[in-house]
Amino acid sequence: MRAVFDALRRHAAERPGTVAFRDDAGAVTWQELAARVAGLARRLDDAPQTIALAVPGGIDYVVADLALTLAGKRQVPLPFFFSPEQTGHILTESAAEAVIGADAGAFAGSPLMVIPPRAAPVGALPDYPGGAERVIYTSGSSGRPKGVIIGDRQLDASLSALGRVVGASTRDRHLSVMPLPQLLEQICGIFLPILAGAECVLRFDATRALLGGPLDGLTRAMEEIRPTTSLLTPGILGRWVAALEHAGAIAPSSLRFVAVGGAASPPALIRAAEAAGLPVHEGYGLSECCSVVAMNRPGENAPGTVGPVLDGIDLQIVDGEITVAGPTVMDSYLGGAPAPARWHTGDLGRLENGRLVVEGRKDALLVTPAGRNISPEWVEARVNADPRVVSSALTLRSDGALVLIVVQAAPVTTAEIAAPLADLPAYARPEALILTDLSEPDLLFPAGTPNRKVAAALAERIAAVPLPPLQQTERLAS
User: Could you tell me which residue ranges the AMP-dependent synthetase/ligase domain spans (predicted)?
Assistant: First the structure.
């Protein structure tokens, strides 16, 4: 992270009046940003070592993140989309003694020291001594957050490798859509723009669209800001592509690199996005490996893969599972043993012509009463290719029936869902369908991936519509 602070100091000296970050409330120049970070870091000198960060986003979040790092603290971002129970678990497990937050009332009666996100700015940005940590909590498949400890080693390696892929420069303007408490957006929306001297615009309406709000929050931001780079999930990408196709429009011509991750992107969606003028590049990663492991490169996009492995990462397929070694692997889970030198991701995959193909979660495999193994992602990818589908979840009901739950962004019929499933072998073809939308509580994680425990419970609770059965000739062929 020393390179980030060196870059911030350089921009403040050489381009003091140039805007660095914008949000819904205003803007901050490089000089103002450096002074605000230095001021809050000084305020934190006498604060406890472990500090939670309860700012939803915007420039105040950027300043607080950088100040906590500069002060050598262990920061614990509190995602605003987590439940009160999850937030309470984080605060207890992390043993945070203070919190940076604008809403002091939210922590009334709590023993936490509440620190405002703003402090008197000072002129000089001190050298970064190193040693800061951040504990990134991931909701995981169980919904119980796990704290991933990330420090300078992981961030430096990730920033170096990603910087070569993105090729950011002072001419870029990044639109931040993903929530800043997520590690990937901290990297892409804060640190990479600072290293490149690029402007970053933070629009909360665009983030709301990602989390199920009106799509026009994203589309309006794209048209007004005319960014060159951004980071999206497949769910919001699908909604945007569908809207562009419906309107007979194309994406802003300013865009040169849009990363998409957090869940699998069907190749058909990537191709539809490219046809709509969106230069999307799918990647793959996980918090335990500092967010990004592989990424498609500009000019070398290969839909159906997540691209070559990043420089400096040693990826091997062991018994069908993706494993990772190298400097981006986390130190440990909070309170856990040190991470092994080679991290087993739990994801199934293969290398194909030097590119990584991700085939689904090892622990998501469904075993039918007939003993057949089914990777749900294999089936779901066919349905998710429809831009009207935000996400889907294949689950096995207690009576042994395969049930497909589809989250719609726009109306889609049973026949339209059944069509891309017709050539599946009989054992993998869903027997019943549940159509729902983004209002279904807790069904999707913020990245757009399904919460499989919630999906399984939903399949037991809600009556499903039968899908058309296979013809006898099709069954014999399967």
Answer: 8-101, 135-334
Q: Mean pLDDT lowest for which of 301-310, 360-369, 395-404?
A: 360-369
Q: Is 350 helix (H, G, I), strand (E, B) or coil?
A: strand
319 vs 196, 202, 323, 348, CA distance in Å? 40, 42, 10, 9
Could you tell me the two tokens for 453? 């425990």
The Cα 464–Cα 294 span in angstroms is: 38
Query: Does 443 share its domain with 344?
Result: no
Q: Domain holding 34: CATH number?
A: 3.40.50.12780
Mean pLDDT of the chain: 91
232-261 residue pLDDT tens: 988 889 889 989 998 999 999 999 999 998
What is the distance between the alpha carbons of residues 222 and 230, in angstroms, rounded to a whole number?
9
Domain boundary among 358, 382, 417: 358
User: Both 211 and 64 in a single domain?
Assistant: yes
Parallel/antiparallel/unpaired status of strands 294-295 and 280-284: antiparallel
Q: What band does 139 get if pLDDT is binned at 50, 70 and 90?
A: low
pLDDT greater at residue 233 or residue 190: 190
Q: What is the mean pLDDT of residues 28-32?
A: 98
Identify the domain boundary among 307, 331, 358: 358
- Please give the pLDDT value at position 478: 37
Q: Do 347 and 445 sit in the same domain of this protein?
A: no
Look up the domain containing 402 and give its range.
Answer: 365-477
Residues 313 and 454 in one domain: no
* Count of CB atoms situated within 10 Å of the CB of 369: 9
Q: Identify the pLDDT of residue 142.
A: 45
Instruction: Report, as an integer, the average pLDDT of 292-316.
Output: 95
CA–CA distance, 184 with 180 (Å, rounded to integer): 8
* Whether residue 344 sits in one domain with residue 205: yes
341 and 462, same domain (yes or no): no
Instruction: State the alpha helices, DSSP H only, in 169-233.
Output: 183-186, 192-196, 204-210, 216-225
